[in-house]
Every structure is written in structure tokens, then in C-alpha cells.
## 1
Amino acid sequence: MSDEELARRLKKHDESAMEEIMEVYTPYISTIINNMSKGGLTISDMEEVCADVFITLWKNTEKLREQELKSYIIGIAKSRTIDKLRAVSSKQTIDIEDIIYIEDNTAEDMYKNSDFRIDFEQALQMFSEDDREIIVRYYYYYQTVPKIAAIKGMNKEAVKSKIRRAKSKLESFFRERGYKI
Amino acid sequence: MMKRNIFDYMETDTQNYDKDNFIEETGINTENVKKLFYKAAAPSAKKVRPVRRRFMYGLAAALISAATIVGTMAVVAQTNGEIVEPKETQKTEQNTIKKLDDKKIAELNKKISMEDEQAISKLMYEELGYDMKNMKSSDITPQYEIDYVFAKAKYGNIVYRDLVNKAIEMGYGDKSLMVTDEDFDYVRNENGEYTANKDFYSDETLKKYYLRTIACCKAYNDPEFHITDEDRLRMINMFNKDYQNIYQAVNESEKYNDTMIKAYELIEKTIVPESGYRELPLDNATKEES
């Protein structure tokens, strides 16, 4: 069943849709939580975060837009992971890459702004398929540089340098278009 | 206001990348997630399902693991440098084990990698004669648990020694800071009893811990230090352990409070995942200390 159909059913508070979403998305969300927490959360903690993502989704179905189920879930997963990392230990260092920071609410506004989304998709086209995959692995799946290097059969420095160049390229791209970054 | 990465909000063509090799085995159990969900959101109570217990190596291994780290901490906290009698140690471990819940055990298990398990097993075999491969449940005696706790502690010391000494050999600390076997937290005397290092909480030892921490933090940003992800995890655990041990001492002695807080802040700022992207004010921190 497509995400759109699932989202439609979810908006009607269809429990079986929720069950299906949990089946489909738990491995994906788990990967994100696991990679983001980098060993800072126990399996039980991660399961709690995962459940919390679904609880938030269930309680906020009215805010859900049918085409955006996946990105909505990812957004919740990331923010819940950060909250959990902060909660479990004051000693935990949370390494949110200081790439392109903007104010929290502005980010959400920008995300909802379709012009920006179009620009962002264009920005990604600046990169080769290989580079895009590295960006996605790094920023979406929170894989570490050594892991990406191993998967891609590259050395770590090369991966780091690709990410560094990508950051700078994206930053200039958005600045040129008048975004405050 | 909290700042977030702009990518957190982006919807892009990740759909194209939802290949199996992006999804990793994390140990998260979908049934457990569902149970937690239904418990909290409760769209339908009937869907609550039994949870499979997640003891990774069975109850015995869980007890051993529990005794390992928490027992070590408890012993360190309670000995204050005095000789530990085996009976007291045993009592501490049993009390500790009772207090542990599944969550704690899962956390402890997670910290022990297969490689670490093998290294500890090797120590158990070489130094204490346990045949770990052919252990039966009846072999897991209180004495075995005590021995395991200390084998783990010794292994921890070895990892710590290797990291610190490597940093010092690279010139990030004075040679006098090199860790030797005598610096190990515990030793086993000729009667087979374990004793805590009597200088454990001395002013000199505390200062050494701090300076060693600085040495490693500085080396950490040097590409030549070449530490793996596993080393990084061990390093964080080791330094957290140092911090906890030292903090315990600080609470008791009310000494070094500021110094140790600074040391910990340094660890927190320095030992981060993907350190390659951070420029850290290590020199400033070191100058403040000196």
C-alpha cells in the first residue's frame, strides 16, 4: 500500500493503518535513531523513541499531509532522538553537524515553503549520483564517515572532503538565492 | 532557541535511496515498539502483545555483565582505596544485581562487544584458568563472578593504558604520565584476593587522570592517533568511568571539584563522533589548567 493511502487511512484514525506503518517504518526509523545516537542510547531507549515517534504521529494525524508521511515521520524521529539523548545523560555529546544552521521555526517555515523545496531539489542536482548518495547516507541516515568510506570503498579523508565540499556548495547555493543561512 | 540542521526538515529524493543496504540491524524489536505504542496511545488494548525478553546471552551472561560494570563501579565507590575482602565484594555484587532492570542490563550488554568479550575470556583463561568455551551453568559460582568482574576491570585498564600511552608516545603528554601495570585499579595478590590500588584517590593519582585525559583529548584530533569507532566508544566509556571514579572521590574529599568539572567539559567537547569536523579550543583549555 502506498504512503499516501496509508496517510489517508491514518487521518481517519484507522488502527490497521497505524499497525502497517509501524511494520514498514520501524526498521527505517530504527536505523536513523541508531545512527544519530552513535551508541548513546540503549536498545530499550531506542525502542522508546521509536514508539514515541508513532505516538506523536497518532496524536497529530490532523497535521499530516498525505504526500508527506515519510518526511513527517523522519522529522519526528530526529527531534525525538535529540530530546532523548539530552534526557538520558547530561554527559552525552550530541553531535548535530554544524553545517547549515537556521532558527528552528524558520527551518520549519522554509520546509513548508514550496519554493524552497524546489530550490533544494535543484541544489541536489548539482551533485553526481555518487556524491548525492554520500550526502543522503550522511545527513539522512546519519551514517558515520568511516562507515560510508567502507561502503563506498573510499578512504575516510576522501569522504570527509566530499561532504565538506557539498556543505560549502549548498551554502553558497542558498545564499545566492537570498536564504539566510 | 534550539538550532537544528536544515536537513532535518528537507524532503528530498531519499525515496530513491531506500535500498536494503541503508537499513541496518539495530536490535530494535518491532513487537516491543508496538507494545510501547499501544500502552501509551492505546488505540486498542487487545493488541498488546507479550514482549520477548532481550537477554543477549541468557540470564547467566546478563548477571555476569551486570556484575561487571556496576560491580566494578560499586567496588570502586566503596573501597576508597582499602583492601577489598572477597566476601564483601560478593555481597556488593549480589545487591547490585537485584537492583538491575532489563533496561540496565541491555545497556550493559551493549557496551560489551564481541571483541571485548573474547579479550576478557582470554584473560580469564590465561590468568585464572577458566575454560570459557566449555562453561556450564554450574560453573558460574560467586567466585567466578568476582573473577569476571576483575578480569573486566583489568581489560578496561589495558584498553585505557594503550590509548593513553599511545597519546603520550605521540608527544601529547609528559612521559611520567605513562600508564603502567602498577597504575591498574585492582591487583590480585598471591592469595588470589583482589585489592584496590591504595593510591587510587590520592591527589597525585587524580591529577594524573586529568592530565592523561587532556593528552588523549589532544591526540584525538591528530590523524596519526588512528582510532577506530570501537576505540572511540571504549575511550568515551573509559573516560566516563574515570570521571565517575574521580567524581566519587571529589564528593568524598571535596577536592578537585573545579578541576574535574573542567576535565569533564573537555572530554565532552572533544570526544565527539565525527571529530574531524570540529576545531576545538584545546589550547585554551590546557592553558587554563596550567
## 2
Amino acid sequence: MTKELTCIICPNGCPLTIQLDNDNKVVSVEGFTCVKGKNYAIQEMTEPQRTVSSSVLVKNGELPLVSVRLTKPVPKTRLFDVMSEIRKITVQAPVQSGTVLIHNILGYDSDLIATKSIASH
Amino acid sequence: MQTVDVLIIGGGPAGLAAAVELHKKGIRNILIFEREKQLGGILRQCIHDGFGLTRFKTTLSGPEYAGRFIDEVNALGIPYKTDTTVYHVSENHEVTAVSPEGLTKIKAKAIVFAMGCRERTHGALQIPGERPAGVYTAGVAQAYLNLFNRKIGKEVVILGSGDIGLIMARRLTLEGIKVKAVYELMSVPSGLPRNIRQCLEDFDIPLYLSHTVTDIKGDKRVEEITVQKVDEHLKPIPGTEEHIPCDTLILSVGLIPENELSLDAGITLDGRTRGAIVDEYFQTDHKGFFAAGNVLHVHDLVDFVSLEAENLADSVAEYITNGDLPECNLSVSYDKNINHVLPQKISGTKDVVFSLRVSHPLKDCVLKVMQNGNCLVEKKMKKTLPAEMIHISVPASKMETSGSLEVCVQ
């Protein structure tokens, strides 16, 4: 079976063509222009992964929210579970960009970090 | 009146990169005016990641990308004034701004336009129907959600497949808001393929090409919109009406360089880019006025905005040091496959990088830069889309100092 998808690793968005055998195992990948693209194709066919960017409530901050993101992608099937974890927390201003807000989210090797500094009110 | 060597209007990615580079080139008497409370421009609300892959070889969110430049501005002690809105720039280099402190007038040897762009609005689209609440541009919806913690609606339809609209489709979905569909007037998406993939396909949000919104119903709040298929002339086809209940319509229908101040100063704009006509020094047709970033032409990646602003800064530094820049008398034209090319004027004596966008999707083609019947450089392209900005370099050694240049696709 042949699958076509767009690489999401970088803005080049290379069109990838993937050959799968009867057990849905990757036989070949074409169309990538870097090794990250090839790895993405294989990952996407086995266990698709995505990062999450969102925001967390801030108490006593100059803005009501601090933007956050995961440091590493997690399985795509867990995105809404990640969102539930993010919704559970609030932080106290001041917040420094880069601060880890949740360590090893859902047990994965991925942290939720603040991506903006928020001064206190 | 206070005088500076360089006044930078706008503290977003272009203004920040220009300021840092000017400082590095030894130009220290500079000042940034920013109308918002903080530096960073639109990146403050672009909390998704994917920024900085070209420049920093890592994927950052918008605030982190801006943060790297803001930290540098602070570390170098570059002066800036936030909450300061420029409302007039005169031809004799006088800038008038308002801030909580009152009116400021300042004179600058060089003025850098780095105001970015704004969104095409509901009014510009002339959608028939009522005018209820619940119609937002994608960037406004993004600001409400990401900066001010406001829920914008429950059931959303998006018109236009621009990247901000696609990013918002994902963001809203993750926040538990139903995004029913994205409709695009053109037969090709205007956003990048990777955003179609990771923002729509990942969440099974349908994208309908060659469709548009032809009616909005609602008393106080949007209650229903009508969409229709369009023909090859982009005219709605009668009988294809579909009524979609929703309470929110988000528009992601294009960005327009924000050039009111440039026009004030008498600067000539390009009808295609809607930004200033510039030479290879990023100087406009008025001496001492420069432009880079989205105010010049809408970019696909912020990494290129920073790079362009740094190139501008190198020219501005040369202008401040020498009091002038070399003449650029060679004009640059392009064929019908290309939407626009920058810069529009060159000297022919300096290496130049052209930035361009194609006017329609192309496959297996060759991009060529011609002069006096000779092909100076060519670049093979497997596929290219209007959504992507293309760069092509021409070394000075290949150019002649007379004869206009033509960029074409074959």
C-alpha cells in the first residue's frame, strides 16, 4: 500500500510517499530532503507524535495567561489528555520563560515549560 | 527637538532584529517606538511552536523567538519606548508620536519602517447579510484567546485558509471549541501544507476549496452562515447554498502591510506587495527611509523577517556612516507566473538576494534571473506554491551594470 503525507517537521513541508507492506510496516520512504523527514514518516506510520502549545492561568500577573509548550512530542492520541493536565494548573506571577511547570507530563519524557515571562501585577 | 541617527518604528521581529544589528555595526544613537505595552509584536500572541528552525536550528514558540531578541535589546541597552504610537512621519524626517507622557517630536537621519501588517477585515470582504457579534479576524481571535483569556465562541466556522486561521482551528479544537469547517475561496489553500496536515487533518476538520461565505444571519450574535461553491471566476454558483448553524465566524483572508505612515511620508508603494518599492539596500524611493519585514511584503516565516531586517540594518549603518548609499538604477521585472519580486531596484554592483512568490502552484519548473538576454542564475524547483516565499541569489560577478533584470519561471 502507498501512503502520501506532508512532512510537518519544518516549513518546507516535503511531500512524502511511503510504501507499506501487508502488516503496515514501512518498506520505503521517498520525497524527504533530510533525515528528520524520513524519521517522521516512519514515526507517523507507527505511533504519530505531536507537541502541544497552550496557556496556563496566572495569578497576580500583568497578563492573565502564560504561554506554554511541551519540550518533546507525545503520542498524538494523548493530546486532549495533555490539555486536561494543563487546565488543572495555575501559577503565581512572576513567571520566568523556560520554567518547568509540569515535569514528565503523563509520565512521558516531555516537560511543560513557560514560553513567556510574566511580571507580577 | 530630540534627534537620533536611526528611529525604528515598530518593536516586532523586524524592528528588534534591525536594532540589534545596528548596535553591532556601531550605530548606537537609535530608538525604537512600539505602540503596545511590550516589545515582540505579533509574536506575543503566536504561542504555537515552529519558529526559529532556520535561524536557531530549534523549534520555538513565538514569545520565545521574540524573547531572544528582546533579551539582546535589553542586554545591549538599546533604548525603546513602548505605549508609543507614531501617527505622523514627515518627508523631512520628523516623527510625531503619542504616549501617556504626551506628544513627542523627534528627528532622525534614517527612519526604519517596521510596522508589520494587519488583517484584511470583514468590511473588505463585503459579505452580504446581518452584522451580528461573533465575526472575528483570526489574529483578533488569537489575541482574545492567547493574551486575554477570553472564549470567543462555541461553534466556529473559518473562512480562508491562511496560516493563522489554520493555527486557530487547532488551538480552538484543543480548547474544546468545535471547529466545523474551513472554507477557502481559491482552488488551492493559502496556508502552508504542514499546517493543513497538523492543524486540520489531525483533528478531522474538513477543508472546502472553491467555497465562500455568502450570507451571515443573526440578531445579536451569529446564528447561521451560508456557504456556496464558486466557479472559476470566483462567482458563487446558484443552487449550491448550504446553511451552517454556528455562533462564530473567523476570517483568515489575508494580510496587508500597514503602510499609512509610509504614505504619509510620500513613499511610493508596489501595487502587488502593498509595501514600499525598495532597492537592494531596503531604501525606499525617499532617501533615508527604509523598510523591512511584513511592512514591506508579507513573509511566510519570521526567520526571514529577522534576516531581512538585519540586511536592512547593514545598509542603514552604511547610510549613517557615509551619508548616502550608491544609486540603484537597474529595474527588476517578472513574468506572469510570479506575483512579486523584491527588491524592485538594484545597482548591479553588489550581490543580491531576490525574494519572490509565484502567482499559482507550479511543478517541475526552472526559476531564472535574466539580464540582456543572458541567464545569470537558475534554480530548479520540484514544486512551489504561492504560500511559500522563494529566495534566489545573484552574485555581482554575473551581473552587468546596465540592463534591467527579469525574473521568470519556465
